[in-house]
Amino acid sequence: LINGHLKRGKRGEALRDEFNEIEAALQQWFDHAAIKQLNRESRAIWQLFNTYFEICRNLKASQHLLEFSDLPIAAYQIWHAPDSSGARYLLMQQIEHLMLDEFQDTNDMQWSIFKTIAQELLAGDNWQQQKLGYSPSVFIVGDGKQSIYGFRDARSGIMQQAKEDLSLGQDPRV
What we know:
Blueprint: H1 10-62, H2 71-80, H3 85-92, E1 97-100, H4 108-121, H5 127-132, E2 137-140, H6 158-165
Parallel strand pairs: 1-2
């Protein structure tokens, strides 16, 4: 290095290479330090979120409150949790027909609930027909081209899945 300029020739090239290696090593160290800092901050934010979520959950539980976003989860638990069989039995005593409109805006969790109800209605044990004088039915209406609830995980392909799951076309009650 002479007067702030690198020497020309092989020695100058070697010096430039060394400087480039040092610069790359320093950049790598700075990048690593930045990633470590970002990880620390992310962990802190995650812990803060988990603490907030836990406090909210406990507060809602202690006051027997639900938010709109809790409703599908609660409904899913009623229709799928083993310890909810009594509630399912009582609910099924009241359901004669299942009518689902705007079905193209159904998400997977909702379909899981509806499918359980529909399959129970269509199980064919005929107790409902004897009690009511008619068979329970399932009526589903939707247009996949009109699905607008993707932001709530709606999946218009569930319409085809429902057709397959319930064997639509084979049961006159559907």
